[in-house]
């Protein structure tokens, strides 16, 4: 019953096998092997167009270096107020990009288009003292388990485009969002106006595989230098490539995400039928936010369930009663039906 | 015949096995698992004292963040003029530490103590305009295949200590140096006055395992933040820990390095006996620098040997004749006697 | 009728005379002249204790470098949401300090103590992912013309002290606040727990004189290097010293601020008696925020009055009627009664 | 007898008068006054073409921000090994530009073209690990009192241009060089291939007036933001403009420099005729490097002369005898014939 985060899971057997195979041979370092080229080409197929792909070590690196590729002196980046770049990366995006992160509110973890427009209006291009708008970053799936619809993405990228701002998508849970929407990678990204994507594999079955995908190749021009100067160029890059090869083989990456989402669906469905717990809000990806009785939560923890509490939203102070607690439950490719059912049984009893 | 670099090798089977085992289970992220704690404790044993250990993704990160832990505004770092931090890291050490790298000359890839003293004297602690001395970094084994003796390390750290400068050691090939000297890890580091160590595993049998080891724990105080802000905190850190567990099990890491050095010895011995090639200079680690006839080099490449040319030292222009070429040959845990013998045969014939 | 900003004024004759006198002689550069030492000592008198003083070129530099002296990796700085460091400095505080500015709300341009506590609580010292609290900065007088009482400063610095955070005060209009409160410089700063002060002279009669005053001299230890590395060490520093000497002679600096505040009082009093205009909110320093009829504003501009509009506060959308406009009117040492009376007459007619 | 530096001089009376006049009036802040526009236009005349001009507070700022305008990730800047950006700015150029300064040797304080070519060749544009060539900076007049001829500048800029590198000129003593060569400002800069100029006024009669002049206006595009973010935008910018107006009025700036150079000529001529002292090397600007007997040097100091010792060049250890000392003597607009003659008399006696 590991629901603390999808990064508590291990690595998928097929990915592990591919890594094992890779371990026995020699090949060129720093991304210059045949395998590296093959996997980069595979990204072109996945996204149905030529892209530039760069592997980095962490999701924080993927986001921070993506924004660094858009750096403008005195520039500000618009992000949802609960975005990872604002809440969870220790200032790395500011450090690497040299820009300030400006939070934009919005219900359900999604940037509100009107609020975005209004925020951007405060940072015109000649705004020497206040700073100037420089980029927009979206998180798909969001930090609160929701997923932007294609129309919602369109609405935000249209605002950015009108102001000349490049758009980054934080896809730490890209596959989970894709499966939730049932669309193609291209449809969810560059066809919607996304310029640069943090494409995460770590949370969905790799042990360490994060890619930055440039649809707007102008932004990639100096990126090899940005990555190297940021200490993110692996010598044995091909071990990242090997993971991605297995990850992207057939529809494995989608299958893994589909499994995680299905497990979350099972969890959501179970919670909906219970009296002793309820969903804090609706989600569609592999994250579930539930209000549990404190008794149930304690009981689950005593029986070995792992999960984290989640801050009660400021604007919904009544969401949680005095004998209740708000928790985040994350499923992954490795979650089993038994895990879910056992957890639900505990909650029901609790 | 892969002699291009030790980072062209794969991963050792025992390390790969340990990774495979790790892939099947769940565990806490961001370095908080039991395994992470166990492996950190193992470093205490290895170094015979309490140390603080932080894993990062690349050797460049290990060096750059080590120096960042010593950062002083207006500070300069003294390094050998051929050091990796000067020659091969795209300015990352400057970027992360905010300090300037000041090259110090010295024969055989080793900093000359007198030149170090003289250089440091140019940057006194009140030197507001010129900058002030802030750190010393040594590379062991050096970039040119040599190894500092314990006395040589002592001589340099004594100079630094007298000036109040902390000392970093770039140990990308730490194990190779250790085996070459036949001393203990403690003897080669903190007993010699080293404060912080880049402890490399990647070149010696891991696929990605670099650690920063703090003997001077004052310097480690803020380091968790430095690492996270630098985008170097892996979520699935335990996969690094797993590699290090297998790497450090028994004397495996030393055995692997010993093998690499022995292969280099075999290569050195073979070259010494040939007329058509010769050693450019003496080395004792797993790097061999040889002057080959251009015919032999071409022949070797045609038969699949991989290696890189090396710039002729400015102060030894006559080292290489007009029909000759200077090459670097690096052995690794995965190099075989057959590789060596085949290469030697080609050179002999060439 | 120059009410656009106090930085539209020139320099006071006594300060100009002192500069003229300074121009005719030779003296040591980079702050090493006798005059520099004398003026630094004068700051000790002003603040009734030993302080460390550093001159810089702009208010943005004073604030940014003050915060740089408090820099902690992954640290965040708490500032009022309308503070200059957030609204008007193009990200310079982030750039020089490497920290993120976190806005805290509060009525009347003043940080609300409860909101500050709540904000700080979100950034505990071990908060690796979210970032850690590192500093508090207050603006006195505030950007909206109000002045913190001594008790109000106490309340905020007590919160900071309890959390171990150093406190910076942005005193771009320090003298205006001091005169408004009628207390001593010591009482408004270090006796209240302020560690570092941006002491502004430019807006109050100098042409360019900004000082950073360290009450907490631990924070000053590396500051000479921070200033030089930030390109803020004037070669002819003594021309800043000369300005400060004349500025601080007798009570000149307080007299100049008192004049500016008195002119603002006259403006406030006049506006209060009019039907066609009103104060947007009460202020006590040399800034007045008024709601004028658009006709009066236009008429004033046509007659040569200079002033800027001010954004209507989000939480007071009804402050301004459809035929009205919100403006900021700033007085200075150089404002005359005639300017005020002429402006008031226009408004009355308008 | 103030020969320590030209920045020990005060301000020229005409410049001081202009400042005084400026002090009595109001005008728009942040470079938006009429005067600011007028003076900017004057630079167009001086340089016989449209230029973009930005004022900053110090020579270090001028150089550092100029290089920041040329910033490329992983880029390196080539400078003479004795250049101010390398020797005297506490790492500010590295800090603001994010680039590494790479020293290039050359006799007489001038970059040797062959050595420059060779250095640049080590940093090709695809040199991911070593770094890539990004800019060239020249100092005119040099730090050792010499002046590049127009042909010498041509030779260096041609090398840079062939490699696509922009060229910066550090003109802290621009006027002294110009007068020494007897050419026009245009001939010494953009007609020679210079893209950006640090145009210094402080050392030649202003108290604080440094300008960055962009001939290549592409590099100026983001510069307003670079300056503001670097805390270098004065609110009362017009006081810089006022200094420059008086400085550039008629040929005043050239007259002042001519005077300084003439005083240096007088000093050089006097030293040449003496037995007890000699010129260390020939110079043509307002800096004189002399070998004095220690007795003469002490005698001069005792009689109030101010000057600094200068390090004996490493490659000329025999330049200075055991009872001799090498000193730098700098003249300025304020140096008098009497100062020179008195000093020469002391040396002769010494």
TrEMBL record, chains A, B, C, D:
Top-level lineage group: Bacteria
Biological role: Catalyzes the cleavage of L-allo-threonine and L-threonine to glycine and acetaldehyde.
SUPFAM superfamilies registered for this protein in UniProt: PLP-dependent transferases (SSF53383)
EC number(s) recorded for this UniProt protein: 4.1.2.48
Domain Aromatic amino acid beta-eliminating lyase/threonine aldolase span(s) in chain numbering: 3-282
Keywords: Lyase, Pyridoxal phosphate
Catalytic activity: L-threonine = acetaldehyde + glycine; L-allo-threonine = acetaldehyde + glycine
Protein's name according to its UniProt entry: L-threonine aldolase
A Pfam cross-reference name: Beta_elim_lyase
Subunit structure: Homotetramer.
Top EC group: lyase
Keyword Disulfide bond: no
Lineage of the species this protein comes from: Bacteria, Pseudomonadati, Pseudomonadota, Alphaproteobacteria, Hyphomicrobiales
Protein family: Belongs to the threonine aldolase family.
Cofactors that this protein relies on: pyridoxal 5'-phosphate
Lyase in keyword set: yes
């Amino acid at each position: 019953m590991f629901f603390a985060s999808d990064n508590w899971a291990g690595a998928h057997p097929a990915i592990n096998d591919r890594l094992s195979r890779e371990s026995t041979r020699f090949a060129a370092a720093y991304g210059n092997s045949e395998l590296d080229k093959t996997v980069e080409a595979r990204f072109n197929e996945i996204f149905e167009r030529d892209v530039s792909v760069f592997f980095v070590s962490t999701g924080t690196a993927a986001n921070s270096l993506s924004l660094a590729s858009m750096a403008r002196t005195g520039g500000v980046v618009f992000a949802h107020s609960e975005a990872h770049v604002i809440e969870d990366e220790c200032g790395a995006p500011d450090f690497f990009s040299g820009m300030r992160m400006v939070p934009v509110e919005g219900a359900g973890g999604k940037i509100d288009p009107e609020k975005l427009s209004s925020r951007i209006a405060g940072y015109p291009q000649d705004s020497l003292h206040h700073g100037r708008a420089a980029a927009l970053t979206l998180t798909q799936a969001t930090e609160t388990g929701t997923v932007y619809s294609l129309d919602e993405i369109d609405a935000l990228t249209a605002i950015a485009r009108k102001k000349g701002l490049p758009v980054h998508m934080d896809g730490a849970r890209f596959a989970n969002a894709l499966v939730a929407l049932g669309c193609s990678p291209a449809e969810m990204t560059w066809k919607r106006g996304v310029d640069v994507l943090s494409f995460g594999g770590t949370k969905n079955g790799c042990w360490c595989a994060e890619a930055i995908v440039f649809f707007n190749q102008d932004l990639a021009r100096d990126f090899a230098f940005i990555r190297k100067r940021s200490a993110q160029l692996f010598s044995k890059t091909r071990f990242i490539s090997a993971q991605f090869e297995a990850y992207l083989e057939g529809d494995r990456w989608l299958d893994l995400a589909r499994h995680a989402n299905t497990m979350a669906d099972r969890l959501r469905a179970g919670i909906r039928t219970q009296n002793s717990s309820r969903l804090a809000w609706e989600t569609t990806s592999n994250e579930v936010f539930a209000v549990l009785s404190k008794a149930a939560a304690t009981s689950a923890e005593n029986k070995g369930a792992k999960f984290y509490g989640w801050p009660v939203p400021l604007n919904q102070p009544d969401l949680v009663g005095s004998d209740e607690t708000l928790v985040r439950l994350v499923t992954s490719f490795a979650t089993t039906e038994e895990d879910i059912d056992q957890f639900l049984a505990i909650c029901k009893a609790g």
